[in-house]
Design brief:
The complex is a heterodimer. By secondary structure, chain A is mostly helical. Helix content of chain A is 73%, strand content 0%. Chain A has 2 domains: 55 residues, no CATH class; 212 residues, MetI-like (MetI-like fold), CATH 1.10.3720.10. In chain A, helix 5 runs antiparallel to helix 13. The longest helix of chain A has 32 residues. Chain A is globular, with a radius of gyration of 25 Å. Chain B has a domain of 218 residues: MetI-like (MetI-like fold, Orthogonal Bundle). In chain B, helix 3 crosses helix 14, helix 9 packs across helix 11 and helix 13 packs antiparallel against helix 14. Classes of the chains: A mainly alpha, B mainly alpha. At the A-B interface, helix 2, helix 5, helix 6, helix 7 and helix 8 of A face helix 1, helix 2, helix 5, helix 6 and helix 7 of B.
C-alpha cells in the first residue's frame, strides 16, 4: 500500500511543458483554477496566523510586545527570550526525559505489537478474531476512563515520577492501535510465503523475524514516526503520573512554565517553539510521506 | 483459455491447504501463539483493562484516593449524585456532545474541501498541504498555549484585528473569558489542529478514485458536481468511515486543549467529561464521582464503537 504511494511523490515534476498556451476551450476553466489558487493562498495565510503570531512574539522584547501591533515583524530580534526560557524553564531536563521515554517506548512498543499482530494473523488458534476485537477496542476507549486507577497501579509498583513508570502505560496504551494496524498489514502478505518458509523448516520465530517483519517495513516505519510524535506530545497520562519536577516530560514543563510565568509572553512563546522543535524536525525529514498520504495509507489498515 | 480454466480450481483448493500444512508442522494453536502474545496481553491487561474495570468498581465506592483511606461501598449513590446534584456533570456532558457533533461537521468538511482542492497539480501544492497539516503534529498543549496567547484580551488577535479593520467591538471580545463563547474559541483551535489530518486521510482516499471513471463521466457530459457526487463520493466512502470514527474518538477524549486554555472555566462552562472526571479524582479527591463519570464516558464510547466494530467485522467476513 505504502510501497505504491511513496513513488507518486516524485510525479509532479513530470509536468508537460508549462509554457504551452491552453487551448481556447479550457480558458474558462483556467480562471476557475486561478480563483481556486487565490482562495487557497488566502486560506493558507489564515492557517499560518497562529504560527506567525507565535514566532514574532518569541522574538520581540517586552516593550515591543506591548507597544507594537502583533503583525509587525520583530525587526530587531530579541534572542534573549530563548535564553531566558532555557534558563528559567526545565526544558533540558524535560527534553532528556521525553527523549528517554520516546527512545525506549517506541521501538519496544512496536516490537511487542508486531509480535502480537503476528500471532493473531499468522498462527491459527481459536477465537483469535474475537481476541483481536477485544484488543482493538482499547484503541477507541479514552485514556481518561482508566487514569485514576492507573495512578494507583503505578503507585503500587512504586514507579510514580519515574521514566519507567511512564513507559509501561505508554506501551500498553499504544498496543491496541499498533497491533490492529499491523494485523491488517500482515494479513495482506500472501500465505504462500509462510508455507514455503515452513517447508524450509522455519519455526514461528524465524518466520516472524526474518520474513514477516522485513516485509512490513513501510507500515513499521510509518507507525514508528507517528508514535514518536504521539509519545512526545502526550500530556494527560504524564500529568497524572509525574509528580516531581525532575521527572517532567516536555508537555508538563511547558504547562509548568506557562503557569509560573503567565505574562512573560516572549519567553513563553520561545519555550513553546523549542518544545515543538523535535517533532518539527521529524516532520520536515518525512514531510513528503506525511502529506502525500503515505503514512495515512499505511496506517489506515 | 486453458490458463484461466486451470487457475480457477486451484484457487479453491489453496484456501484449505495452509491449514493442513501448518498443523503438520505443529506451529498452530494458542500454545504456539502464546510467546508472541504474552507481552502484549500482560501489558494490556495490567495497564489498560484492569484500570478500566477498576474504575467501574470504584464508581460504587466513596474514596478520597489516599493510600490507606477507607473505601466505603455506597451502591449507586455516586451516580445519583452526578445525575441529580452535579450541574457541572450536565455541562460537561452537553459540551462533550456539542464537541463531537461540531467535529463531525466542521473539521471533517474542511478536511474534505482541502483535500479536493489540493488533489490536483497546482503551484505550491506541497507547501499548502504542509501548512494545513503541521498543526496536527504539534502537541495539543503547545497549541493551547499558542491560542491562549492569540486570545489575550489586551494584546491578542482580537485587538490587532480591531485596529486593522477598524472594528472596535472586536477588541472587547473576551474569547476565553466569556462563558458563552469560550467553548467555541477552544473549538476553533481544535479545528486548526485536526482539519489537516483529515485532509491527508481524504487525500489518501482520493488516490483510490479511478481517473478513468472520472474521465468517462466527463465524456458522458457530467458536470463537476455530478462527477463528485456519483464518482468521487462513492469511492471515498471507506475513507469517510475511518475519518468519522477517528473524529469521534478524538473529540470524546479532548482534554489537553481545555486544560491548557481554560482549565474548564470560566465558571466550569468549558468542562468536558474527560476533564471533569480527572479533576474530580485528582483535584477534588472524589474518586467515587470521578470514576462514575469515567464509567459514563466508557459506556458512551462503547455504545458508539461496538456497533461499528461488529459492522466492520461483518464487512470483512463478506469480502
Amino acid at each position: 500500500m505504502t510501497v505504491t504511494a511513496i513513488p507518486t511523490a516524485a510525479a509532479p515534476v513530470a509536468n508537460p511543458s508549462p509554457k504551452r498556451k491552453p487551448r481556447p476551450l479550457s480558458r474558462g476553466r483556467d480562471w476557475v483554477r486561478v480563483g481556486l489558487w487565490v482562495a487557497l493562498l488566502f486560506s493558507v495565510l489564515i492557517w499560518a496566523v497562529p504560527l506567525i503570531f507565535m514566532v514574532f512574539t518569541s522574538l520581540k522584547s517586552e516593550a515591543d510586545i506591548f507597544g507594537t501591533p502583533a503583525f509587525v515583524p520583530p525587526w530587531a530580534p530579541e534572542w534573549g527570550n530563548y535564553v531566558e526560557a532555557l534558563d528559567r524553564g526545565h526544558l533540558l531536563t524535560a527534553g532528556g526525559n521525553s527523549l528517554i521515554v520516546a527512545i525506549i517506548k517506541v521501538p519496544v512498543g512496536l516490537f511487542i505489537s508486531a509480535a502480537a499482530a503476528f500471532a493473531l494473523s499468522r498462527i491459527r488458534f481459536k477465537r483469535q478474531r474475537l481476541l483481536m476485537g477485544v484488543i482493538a477496542l482499547g484503541a477507541m476507549v479514552p485514556i481518561q476512563v482508566a487514569i485514576a486507577p492507573l495512578f494507583q497501579v503505578i503507585n503500587g509498583l512504586n514507579l510514580l515520577s519515574t521514566n519507567l513508570g511512564l513507559i509501561l502505560p505508554y506501551i500498553a496504551f499504544g498496543l491496541p492501535y499498533q497491533t490492529f494496524i499491523l494485523y491488517g498489514f500482515f494479513r495482506q502478505i500472501p500465505e504462500e510465503i509462510d508455507e514455503s518458509a515452513r517447508i524450509d523448516g522455519a519455526g514461528n520465530w524465524r518466520l516472524f523475524l526474518t520474513i514477516i517483519l522485513p516485509l512490513a517495513k513501510p507500515a513499521l516505519a510509518a507507525l514508528f514516526i507517528l508514535d514518536f510524535v504521539a509519545t512526545w506530545n502526550e500530556y494527560s497520562i504524564a500529568l497524572a503520573l509525574l509528580q516531581s519536577q525532575d521527572s517532567w516530560t516536555i508537555p508538563l514543563a511547558l504547562q509548568g512554565f506557562q503557569s509560573q510565568f503567565t505574562s512573560s509572553y516572549g519567553p513563553l512563546n520561545a519555550f513553546t517553539i523549542m518544545s515543538v522543535f523535535p517533532v518539527l524536525i521529524v516532520y520536515l525529514m518525512f514531510q513528503r510521506y506525511f502529506v502525500e498520504g503515505a503514512f495515512a495509507g499505511a496506517v489506515k489498515g | 483459455m486453458s490458463t484461466t480454466s486451470t487457475t480457477a480450481p486451484s484457487r479453491t483448493s489453496r484456501t484449505s491447504r495452509p491449514r493442513r500444512r501448518l498443523a503438520r508442522f505443529g506451529s498452530t494453536g494458542f500454545i504456539a501463539a502464546l510467546p508472541f502474545l504474552a507481552p502484549a496481553l500482560v501489558a494490556y491487561l495490567v495497564f489498560v483493562v484492569a484500570p478500566a474495570l477498576e474504575s467501574v468498581r470504584l464508581s460504587f465506592f466513596e474514596w478520597s484516593g489516599f493510600q490507606g483511606a477507607p473505601q466505603v461501598f455506597v451502591g449507586l449513590q455516586n451516580y445519583v449524585r452526578i445525575f441529580t446534584h452535579d450541574p457541572v456533570f450536565w455541562t460537561a456532558l452537553s459540551n462533550t456532545v456539542i464537541w463531537v457533533i461540531l467535529s463531525l461537521v466542521i473539521p471533517v468538511g474542511l478536511g474534505l474541501v482541502m483535500a479536493l482542492a489540493l488533489n490536483r497539480k497546482i503551484f505550491g501544492r506541497n507547501l499548502f498541504r504542509s501548512v494545513f497539516y503541521i498543526p496536527g503534529v504539534l502537541a495539543p498543549i503547545a497549541i493551547a498555549n499558542m491560542w491562549r496567547w492569540m486570545y489575550n484580551p489586551n494584546y491578542g488577535i482580537g485587538v490587532n484585528l480591531a485596529q486593522l479593520f477598524n472594528l472596535p467591538w472586536l477588541a472587547d471580545v473576551q474569547w476565553l473569558g466569556d462563558k458563552n463563547l469560550a467553548l467555541y474559541s477552544i473549538f476553533a483551535a481544535f479545528v486548526w489542529q485536526i482539519a489537516g489530518t483529515n485532509m491527508v486521510l481524504f487525500l489518501a482516499g482520493l488516490q483510490g478514485v479511478s481517473p478513468d471513471h472520472v474521465e468517462a463521466a466527463k465524456l458522458d457530459g457530467a458536470n463537476r458536481w455530478q462527477v463528485f457526487r456519483n464518482v468521487v463520493m462513492p469511492s471515498l466512502r471507506p475513507t469517510t468511515v475511518v475519518v468519522v470514527v477517528l473524529t469521534i474518538i478524538n473529540s470524546i477524549k479532548v482534554f489537553d486543549l481545555i486544560v491548557g486554555m481554560t482549565g474548564g472555566g470560566p465558571a466550569q462552562q468549558t468542562q468536558v467529561l474527560a476533564l471533569w472526571s480527572f479533576q474530580q479524582s485528582f483535584n477534588n479527591h472524589e474518586y467515587g464521582s470521578g470514576n462514575a463519570i469515567a464509567t459514563v464516558l466508557l459506556v458512551i464510547t462503547l455504545i458508539i464503537v461496538v456497533p461499528y466494530m461488529v459492522w466492520t467485522a461483518k464487512q470483512e467476513k463478506n469480502s
